[in-house]
Write a structure and sequence with these properties.
The protein is mainly alpha-helical. It is built from seven helices and three strands.
Length: 159
């Protein structure tokens, strides 16, 4: 079903770039909703899951600030997400010696165990969502989206 039909629009889009952006946004929202449904069953939000995944797949210690930058969220937002994860005993925060304003965030064993159960289900859900695409089509889409993000960075430099 095309976006015009999906959104119940009476007339077609007049601008292909506008239609493309709306297709990307609409698709991202639908994919996000699939994840959100799954995460809710485990008492998590998408933001909380993203923090846990960032902590699982890190090569070095991450600070609260590092996580905020990686996940592109405000300082207040990352603090709130970490507060909730810490209350669930999924992460811990520890001060850096000599600087009480910097906190190292670590995944707890309980957080690891939760991801051990949740991540395979998430991967299965994503495979179900994208199952109609070949690996080559996925690589093409990744390349195209990377090009769009590169262009966005260039445009933002000039704003």
């Amino acid at each position: 079903m095309n976006l015009q039909q999906e959104l119940g629009l009476d007339r077609p889009f007049q601008d292909i770039y506008h239609e493309t952006v709306l297709n990307i946004v609409r698709t991202a929202i639908l994919i996000s909703n699939v994840g959100a449904e799954l995460f809710r069953k485990f008492g998590l939000t998408e933001a909380q899951f993203n923090v846990l995944i960032a902590l699982r797949y890190r090569d070095r210690e991450l600070t609260q600030s590092d996580l905020g930058k990686r996940l592109v969220v405000t300082r207040a937002s990352i603090t709130s997400v970490l507060d909730k994860l810490e209350a669930k005993q999924l992460v811990t925060r520890s001060n850096v010696t000599g600087n009480r304003r910097i906190h190292i965030v670590t995944l707890t064993s309980k957080g690891e165990e939760l991801l051990d159960r949740l991540e395979p289900l998430y991967i299965e859900a994503i495979h179900n969502v994208l199952g109609g695409l070949t690996a080559e089509q996925c690589h093409t889409m990744i390349s195209m989206l990377e090009s769009v993000r590169d262009r966005i960075r260039e445009v933002q430099k000039n704003i």
